[in-house]
Structure formats: C-alpha cells, structure tokens
Protein 1
Amino acid sequence: MTRTPPVALKAVLLNTPDIELWPGGLLRARSNGDARTLSRARHVLRRKRDGTYLAADLAEGMLPLVPRLHREPGLDAALDLLGVSPLHSRNGIDHVGELPLHRLQERLDALDIDADGYSERTGLALVAEPEWLAFAGVDRYRRALWLRIDAARAWLRMREAAARDGILLEAISGYRSHDYQLGIFARKLARGLAVDDILQVNAAPGFSEHHGGCALDIGTPGEPPAEESFEATPAFDWLQAQADGHGFAMSYPRGNPHGIVYEPWHWRYQGA
Ligand SMILES: [Zn+2]
C-alpha cells in the first residue's frame, strides 16, 4: 500500500552546520518589511546560532538581510543547497543523511565542556543533526515543528488517532540544533553559572535526543509544558497504551540508566 504523505510534509528545512534554509512562509516576521519579504521568499537563510535572518531567496535573486552577507560563516554551504529538494533525491524520499560532528567537538572544547566525561557518566552518545527535516505542523506556540520525515509522519498519524479517541496531543518541542543548545550554555556561562550546574538542568550540547529529529516533547491543552504532572493526564494514559503501536517510546522513564530526571512528556520515534 502506498500512502501519499500529507501536503504539509512537502515543506522541508535544509540544514547545514551554520545556516538553516527555511521555506519562506513559515518564519515569524519581525517587522512589516520582513513580513512582505518572508512571504515572497522561496527560502530564508537563518543563522542557527542566534536565529538571525541572513538573506531571502526571491524570484528576482538573493536579498541580503544583514550587512556583509558575503562574509557570513558557512554561507557557501548554504547557497549550495538552493534548488536541492531532498524529497526528489535519487536516494528516495526517506533518505536522510547526517551532518558531521567534528565542528561540535571543537565548540564543546571551547566552552570547556568535557564531552567524553559526560558521555561516560550518562551513557549518552553524541547525536548528529539530520541534513533536512520535514514540517510536522505547528507546536503549542504556533511555531513550526520540525522532525525527521519518518517521525513527522508517525507523529501526525498518532495525533490523529488520539483525536479520534477524544485525546488532544500537542507538540511542545521537536528538533533542536546543536547551536540552539550551545546558545543556552553560552548565555548561562556568561551569567556566571558553572558548567556542572548547567548540566543538572540542560543536556550537554550534542547529547540531546532532540538534535536527531526523532524526539518530541508532548503536552495536552491546559497542562504546563514539560512537567511531571503530565503523567496524571488522560493524554499520558493514552500514550502509554497506544504510542508503541505508532512507533514511539518514552526515552526517560523513572530510574532510567542515564540518570536523567523522569520525563513523561519526552517520546522518541524508533520506527514502526
Ligand atoms: Zn524532550
């Protein structure tokens, strides 16, 4: 049986180490001028480290949105992806490659994070970012939710199945980049926190399952996001009974071997 993917899955985020290429209509405008440009753009180049919109790929050409665009790190790698559509790649619709990890290692060293020690302590491994991600609808905050295409399809189907049973599942957060997690650390370090204290609350950059595009945090209306109280909701009961049939498993149950706090909201797609 072939299944046509939902239309939404045709929107993809193309990923490079420094820059993401977003489909034009999905980014939040920061001004009226922005809104017009973003809605017309085929792609918007977005700096991963801080979210800055760098350039808009318009029908008439590339419109720089920052001064000295040509000096932007990683620009060439991003421009190389323009016109590339992974959905029609010769490798087939589901082929998702991964970005290399060496650059992450350098940045962990720069932040004085002992990645090897952390890995040994937690049993967690570095998680590579996918080369591209599929649009899986919006999250609770109306932001684009990005997941690997197999996880995106499974999530949309699971959400529909839950809805048929009268259960509303909401995505809280899906794919997050290494740069996003590095940014959290850089800001906290700048405020004077110690690495070990930050690691009590945040996974080390590179080690979060969210980097791989298969994990998502799930909530339900009226519940605060990412709180243990989620386990007392009908939505959680439904997930415990049904998620497995949709290929999802809870990553961090009580007493998990990684020493990560119990996260009843965090689920990972592991294949049908
Ligand atoms: Zn999570």
Protein 2
Amino acid sequence: MSWRPITLVAVLCLALTVPGTAAADDPPPEVEQRAGTRAPAEVHGLSEPAQAGDPVAAAKAHLADPRYHLDPADLAPLRTVVDGADETVRFAQRHRGVPVFGAHYLVHFRKDGDRREVVGAGGRFLTELTVSTTATVTGKTAARIAHTTMIRDHRSREGVTAQDAGLVVVPGGAGQLAWHVVLTGRDAVAKKPLLLDAYVDAHSGRPLFAVDRLRMEGPVTGSGQTAHGRTVELNAYERADGAYELRDRTRPMWDGTDGEILTYDAAGRTFFDFFTPGIPEGTELVRSATPVFGPEHTETGAVDAHWSAGQVYAYYRGLGRDGLDGQGGTMYSVVNVTADGEPYTNAFWDGTKMVYGGGGDYHSFAAALDVVGHEMTHGVITHSADLVYIGQSGAINEGLADYFGNAIQVDTYGIPMSDPNASLLGETLCKTAPPEECAGRDLGDGRVAGEDYLGFAVGYDNGGVHYNSTIFSGALWDVRETLGGAVTDRLVYKALTEYMTPLDDFVDGRRAVESAARALGMSARDKLTVARAFDRHGIRPGWERALRTDSRVLIDGITDRLARPDVAGDRYVISNTSPDALSPSVILTGRIGGGKPVRLSEGERWNSVPVTDGRRAAWTSFDAAQEHYQVHVRPLDRSSPPELVFDAPSLVDSVAIDGDTIVWDGVGADGEHGVWVKRGSAAPVEVTAEAAVHGFSPSLKGGRLAYERYWTEDGALRSAPAVVDLRTGAETVIPMPAGSWTVKPTLTGRHLVWMYDADDDGRYGIMRAAPDGTRRAVVVQDGPQAPRPNWFDANDEVATLGLWPDGSGNEVSNAILPKIHQVPLGGGTPQRYSCNRGYQDYFASGEGRTVVWLDGTDGNTDLVTRDRPAPRCRTGS
Ligand SMILES: [Zn+2]
C-alpha cells in the first residue's frame, strides 16, 4: 500500500524493464523524489546485479549510473552494515572535499553467497551545490561571532569559550560554506552546562544555527523504588596490586578490538570537567579492595552503570552490533558527578561517554536501565543515521533513544508489554515518587502530530526534541505492543542503521521504517500494522497543515534566526533572509496597517537588529572586509540611500534611534562591553568609559538615554538602570538593591520602565519611574510568583512581556510555550494577549495596545500583529 505520492522517473523505468529480473508478483521499482535535489530520496524494488568484492566499490559503481545524478567521487564511505543477507553501505557527501552537513546516501544490497544484487538506494545527496569552498571569514572571527550571537543572554557568555572546528557545507540551494564552531562552558543564567555546535557563514560571517550536543534529559520529577535491591554480577578486573576495578573485558569486542566497558568515579567533580572527549586526567576507575563492590559503589551509581552498560552491550549484540560505535570501541561511563558540589540530577551522552549525576530525591541516573539504554542509544545513533539534534530529526533521535531504552529495560527484566509501566521512561529513578510521577516521558501518551506537535522556536529544547519525541516513538511502541519485541526491535534498528539520514523529518522517518519492513519481507498484515501505527500518530505527508490563529500576518516566513522586530507608530522594521535562509539578511520595513514590506538595506552584507523612531531606521551590518561591524541609518521612505554612521572593530549588539541621535552597545577596543552615543555629525562618545563599568540594551527617547549599567562593587557584580540626560551629560543611576538584576530599561516618553530580578531566581518584576529616574513605583512585584519573561517592551500605556507559563512539571502541550502578556503601567496582573498556541517570540510594542511579534504557531515563523488583547483564550491554546 502506497501512502505517499510516488514520482516515477522515466530514466529509471527504462533502465529497469530488463526482462526476467522481477518475479511476476513483485511490485515495479519505485522512486521517491526530494525537493531541491535530483538525487532520489529513495529507490526500492530494484533487482540488479552488482560488483563482487569490496561493498564500497560496488555501491559507488552502482551510484555512477546517471539516473542518480551524483558523482561517486563526492561520496566518503562511513560504514557498511551487514544484517543477514542484507548489506548496506552508508556514505557522507563531500562538496569539493568539504563535508556536507547531514547529507548521507545509502545503497542496499542483498547477498546470496558470492552473488550481490542491488535492491535499493536512497538518502540525502544535494546535487545543486555550487558554493565556493574558499572561506573569506577566518575561523577565529567565526568563533568570535558565534560566541557573541549564539548565546542570547550576555551574562551567560562569560563562562563560555568558542573554538573553530573546521569547514562544512550547509545544505539548501547552492549551499552555504560555514565554519563549525564549538561553544563550551556553563550557562550562568540557565545554571546548566552548555556544549553547542554552532555554524557561521564562512563568506558573510552571518550566524546560521546552533545544535545542542548535550543530550540532556528533561527534568524528571518524582522518584521510585529502593536503589533497587537487586543483586547483580559485575565484570570487574583484578589489578596487579590486588585491587579490583570496574573494567569489563568479557565482551566479544575485547577479542576483536580490545573494546572494554569502563566505569569511572568522578568523586563529586563537577560535570564541566567531563565535556572534553575522553576521560579527564585524575579520574579513576571505580575501585574496590574485594571483588564485592560495597554499598558506597551502589550509592554513587557505579554498580548500576557498569552492570547496565553490559546489558546494553548484550542487547545490541543481539541485533548484530558490536558496541555503541558498531566497531567494538570501548564504552565509557562516569558516575558521581555534581553541579559544583550540588546534586546534579541528570545524565548526558557527550558524544564519547556517558556521564551520570544523581542525589537529592533521585538515585544515580545510572540506576534506571531505560535511562542508561536511552543515553547509550544516542551513541548508536551518532554512529549510524546521526539524526541532527534539532526539530523533527532531533525528536526522532530522542524517540529512538526512548524506544530502545525502554525495549532494553522490559526485555532484560522480563516486563510484559502490557504492563502499564512498560512504556514509561525513567520511572525507577525516584526514591519516593510513584513510577507514573517519576517518569520523564510515556511512550504510550498517544500524542498525534497535527494536534500535539509543539511549535517550539529553535532557541528552546532545539525546537522541542524532547517534547515532540513521543509522537514518533509512540508509533513505534504501538507496533511493538502488537508485533512483539523481537520483530519490532529488528525493524526499528534496521530503519535506523540502513535507511534513516541526519535531516529526516517525521515523514522521512516513517518512510525509513516502512522501507525496512519491506526489506525484512514482513507480511502485508504486519506492514499494515506499521502503517496504521504511524497513521494513528498523525505522521502522514502534509500533516503540518496551517493552524488557526487570531493574528494578522505581516510577513509570512521569517527565516532569520536573529530576527527581532521594532515598531514606531504605524511602521515596523525587521531583518529577514530568503525562504531558503541562504541570502544575506536584509532590513525590511512596512506598515502595520498592511501592504508589502520594502527593503532598506543595500548590498551583500549581513544586516541585523533594526530599530526605528517612525521616521528613520538604524541597524547594524557586517562589512565587506568581514572584519568590521557598521551602523547604518536610512529614512523609512527611502528618500536617501543608507548612510554609514559608525564602523566598529567588533560586534554591535543592539541599536536605538531617536531623531538625529543614535546609540548602540557592543564590545569596544578594550574588550569591555559598553554603550556609545552619537549625536548628529559629532564623533561617538562612550557613555560607559569609566573603568570596569559595562553597559547593555540602550534605549533612547526625548533627549535621554537609558541602559543596563553593570559594575563591580565590594567584589560583587551589580546592575541597575542608568539614565543620561543628553543635553547636560548628567547620569542618574537608579538605586537598586545589591544582588538584584536589571533588564532592558525602556524609555517610553512619559516613563522609564524596566524589569528587575531581586532574588536571582529568573522571575522578574516590573518597575517604572519618571524619565529622570524620580518617582519610582512597582508595576509588578518580584517574588516567587513573579513572571518568567523571555522578552520585554513598554510604551506610555502598557508593559508587554513574553511569559513562560507556570505549568505542572510533566505537562506537555503548547500551553508551556512563551505567550505575550500585557499589564497597564498603573499596575495589575499581566493578561494574555493572543490565543495563538505556539511559541510567541521576540516582539515590539506599538501604539496603544498594538504588538508586532514573531509567532511559531502555524508551522513556520511569521511576523504577525494584533491591536488589542484577546478577550479570552480556550484552555490549552
Ligand atoms: Zn536523549
């Protein structure tokens, strides 16, 4: 049964009408195309003789056929998977020698003795790449750009370092040459570790996107059984000095590749120490004086981690795989890590090893076999389809980790699939909470793509990889409930290792599973079970249909991840790129009342953070020499060309404009973040020239400038709103208590309005004052119930803020995404503004109650507007 429109390619049909190659009841070969490339997404039903000998050479010879439209010289072999008579060769695409992000292509053979036959091929190969692979931006510059632009909160940048890691070609149209930059450190605001793979255009310097490498699991609430009282056999190693360590050399991989299972005790060291590949110096294998590893090793999680790693190895061995990398490579686990001495209740796979924390109400995260299986499956995925940890491919990655994690647990413990806890992930982690409360996710939650997909912006949970995973894994788990573990695990494993590719979306993932089912020769009835499971979870072509909204679209399809609107009167300004996100971003302006936006910026520079006073726009750009930032100004009516008003050696973060005055913030020649003001044709003056005074987020109105002022006092960092009277130069720093944080002081004309966090809990109150800083008043009180904003703006009438709703811990719905609220400056409770169900991101406050914002509800990001708050939203929206 075909579930997807099939495009038959004429050449292929001709090539395949060779008499006698197909039995009478074989369906004809089918080809599925992929938009934007001439190489087929999938070809199946082939039956063509292939070269004997080296499978890589045989696969390349097959792909040399013109119907594939690809040059085998551009294919670098990754690995060959053998599954009984099936042999699959996986390649990664190169463009002029540079790796192409996420482009894998596979060839499927069937072997019968020495005879080898091609039965199919497919994946992702980009035939239209023409981009030059000579970088004009240096790796060092790219690293600096990634560091400043990819980390949204400047307080988080302090503890993060950036390192360039080589060139890649990013897919789309002609392709885009990019520097891969690795950002490592600690996010001081989110208070969690950070390990990002960022990509910066190597020709324009424009930041493209970032992928979170840490497979952090979502917060798991609750706790379960005793830890867990089960006596297990540990494969340990007796050292020459008579001590025993957790070193397992009994696995088949030890004979082949010297692969071992090693378990280390971090002895409470902080998790940051374990980010670099491998095991840091000074970390010891778990050791005991006797072969009985005592209660102290139960407490740290060492016993569980070591035993469970062995179970995971044995499970994948049963599927024909030798270790996580499939090559018998050593499997590393580290237990007993903390968050700077505090309990670190999480676990992660960093690409080379497992790291487990625990404490408080939680056992070690190694104490749940499904969690161990989940994390280690990320290792298997890395070494097979390598699904990109972002959006739908990221959700499939998470979903497969959950599927196999749970499969390993139920098989190892003999739990029947009908057990209500079988579908729960991490349900045994808790010391006291019951399983259903302790579990992080439930593969039986019955979520359906169209109804339940969460419209995350990519800045949060990589576009919802943990929150959307059960839509896909739920379908697989349904199949397992019907067809059983033996058949289904093999099916899913085959799909992962022989059909999926890094950028697969849900529909691609379904196709991979159905292709694997066909390759396994599953019965029509079983294939129907698979199809129905995906249907039930809404995974069908075209499921991302438009959803209802209560806003008016100003620009359909914002593809610039740095886009942020500004508004004055009826005019808005925003940056955007082309629909394929390949062109340098341009500055657009339009009227909130309607009409087509027009372009303000010129040339091929990357343009960003536009602002307007209703008459002119100001914005920043990266100059043609790739080493300088610039500030430009242009009238909104385009009566004169853009005027260059400042040329800076380093990044300009934000700009504000009012009449003939322009202010901006960025990093100066001294390496410190400051605020500059330029009045008319005079040279710019740094407002924050005083040593060790930093400034951020300037605002400008009525002859005054306001900014976030940071300075050190008595060894502690302080912040407060500062107002400068531009006529006299007098500066007023509004007194704020030590330990409180100030964000985005905004001059509205009649008021100065800002957010403050007095107790450093990420919740913010709102204050206002007269523009000269006098007559201070609280609009919304800070405290444990205060709002958790993701953005903020104000006018003379209202403060507008994007709020993370306070939800119950495990609730998964669009209701947990940030929504715009408004509160009158006279005080009150912030009220919901639009009932759109998805992510309501950056916004600007216009006249009266008008707001212009970026909205993720209807399947992509649009610039939208309303002119008044929504009367009442249905629950769940
Ligand atoms: Zn995961």
